[in-house]
Amino acid sequence: MKYLAYITILSGLLLTNQGCKKVLYKTPLAQLSTDVNYVTPDDAVRAVTAAYTPAAGNNWCCTYVGTGYMHWVLGNVASDDTDKGGESGSDQLYAQQVQLFNIPADNDATRFAYQVSYIGIRRVNLVLEHIVNIQMDENLKARFLAEVKFLRGWYYFNLVKAFGDVPLVLSSELESFDLVRSPKAEVWAQLIKDFTEAEAVLPEASEYSAADHGRATKGAAQAYLGKAYLYLNDFAKAEEWFGKVIASGQYALSSDYLEMFMRAGETSSEHIFQVKFLNDQGAQPANNNNIGTTFGSRAKNGWGFNLPTQDFVDAFEPGDPRLNQTVYKNGDVMPDGWIANVGNSTTGYLVKKYYVPDYERIQGSVQAGRDDIYMRLGKVYLWYAEAANEIGKTTDALHYLNEVRRRARQGNNDVLPDITVTDKDALRSAIWHEQRVEFGQEYERFFELVRQDRAGQVLRAYAAKYNTAKGEGFRDGINEIFPIPQTEINLSGGKIVQNPGY
Fold first, then answer.
1. 405-442, pLDDT tens digit by residue?
2. In this predicted structure, what is the pLDDT of residue 364?
3. Within a domain: residue 198?
4. Which residues are in the RagB/SusD domain (predicted)?
């Protein structure tokens, strides 16, 4: 069952066309017919795989999957950690609009994020409604149903944090534009229900075979339950669920921080949830994950987007090894021996976590079938530490904060000394700082600032410090969420209403 290893090539064959074209909002032509295609166990496998496929979008241009959720734009570029990059401000204008918080309702990044999530949700609903009637191994069927419940929770998590109130679609007979927007409290309640029901059934990571690596696990559901409660400021519940992940013993911090983002680290014991991509160097088409091209240097066949800011670089403490494992600059020696040239990067930096060394390149392309890592133990430790601090478990908070710093030292005890402060406010600040550098360029920063209720403060301060328009236009009470795509409002005939201020 190596379906997940080929998840994006499947979607490429079924759902894409070649060339950079606008994506039309329509039902995919390869959608499984409910009359004839939910009959055999193999049909169930294909349907579940199809439900995973929309999760594989984090890029731009050219293909249905490539447009994807746009995590890099909404999570990175909207924040103080990242400049948009590219040839000019008009190169991929949707990202420039997000950077300046001058975001129209027809912004491509927000449209892709919204529509791709609902495509995933509809596929989940099809599975939930139809594979229950397939004659197959009942334990496998139960696991499949749990996997797609996890996925529906994941898709709705991405939607609610980006758009607030959204249509709650729980039937394949309905499209998102058939319904009005549900209050975000109802959306949070549903995704928590999906994660909870999935967690009760899903296997532990160690119970999967190697061929099924990348499927949703019990630990992934627990981690996202913790994250959901953290976003809701229910710190006791967040501490409880993150604690379950830690107590499971299924995961361990990687000894090599950079390697876990490279192909060699795809099976890292630190990874809890990742989106799998084809990585056969002899495959046709030659690649699936376009993020290496998107973030790559224009001096080495990349497009030069997602530029780490000086403010982000300066956030690292002196001697922190993670700095040189997260970003690179001219003259740095890269993992394949290349002497770095960051091309036209206006900040002087590019992201090393997504650098594609020569030995990973497919048929000479900068693109590679490397996995996208969305949940890992380093994040769980620091989110656990934050939740524990808020409920008075100071000792536990310090322990897991310092575990992350210990790994970051990589044997050099002269850097990153243990944090010993016990004042709640001071410890919170220390944890937030550690999250920024530990999670650097991993699509968390903007949404973290929003949930911490300090996005406007931080972004306007950034604009003032660097005399830039980036962040200057952030409006409190408006820009914490993004506009509902105008196409959805039009399709709904006005039943879906726009977010205030857009």
1. 999 999 999 999 999 999 999 999 999 999 999 999 99
2. 60
3. no
4. 270-502
The count of other CB atoms within 10 Å of the CB of residue 138 is: 8
Q: Name which of 398, 343, 393 is nearest 366 in CA terms.
A: 343
Instruction: Report the 10 Å Cβ neighbour count for 486.
Output: 17
Q: What are the C-alpha distances in Å from 300 to residues 186, 283, 340, 355? A: 47, 22, 9, 10
CATH number (domain holding residue 476): 1.25.40.390
Global pTM? 0.91
Structure tokens given for 166: 């959204």
CB 309 within 8 A of CB 330: no
From 8-12, 56-60, 223-227, the region with the lowest mean pLDDT: 8-12
In a domain, 306, yes or no: no
Query: 433: helix, coil or strand?
Result: helix
What is the rounded distance in angstroms from the CA atom of residue 143 to the CA atom of residue 127?
12
Instruction: List the beta strands (DSSP E) in 67-199.
Output: 82-85
Q: Which residues pair with 365 in a beta bridge?
A: 362
Residues 241, 222: contact at Cβ < 8 Å? yes
Q: What is the mean pLDDT of the chain?
A: 89
Q: What is the pLDDT of residue 3?
A: 39
- Do strands 305-308 and 82-85 pair parallel, antiparallel, or not at all (unpaired)? antiparallel
CB atoms within 10 A of CB 235: 18
Does any domain span residue 267? no
The mean pLDDT of 243-255, rounded to a whole number, is: 98
Task: Give CB contacts under 8 A, 24+ apart, made by 262-265.
Answer: 262/335, 262/357, 262/360, 262/370, 263/360, 263/368, 263/369, 263/370
Say if CB 459 and CB 474 are below 8 A apart.
yes
Q: CA 500, CA 502: separation in Å to the nearest integer? A: 6
Distance CA(59)–CA(69), nearest Å, equals 8
Spatial separation of the C-alpha atoms in residues 234 and 249, rounded to whole Å: 24
40: amino acid identity, one letter? T
Closest CA to 223 of 391, 385, 406, 381: 381
Q: Provide CB contacts within 8 A for 433, sequence distance 6+.
A: 315
As for how many domains the chain has, the answer is: 1
261 occurs within a structural domain: no
Domain that holds residue 106: 1-188+455-497
Mean pLDDT of 261-273: 93
Virtual CA dihedral for 94, 95, 101, 105, nearest 10 degrees?
Answer: 20
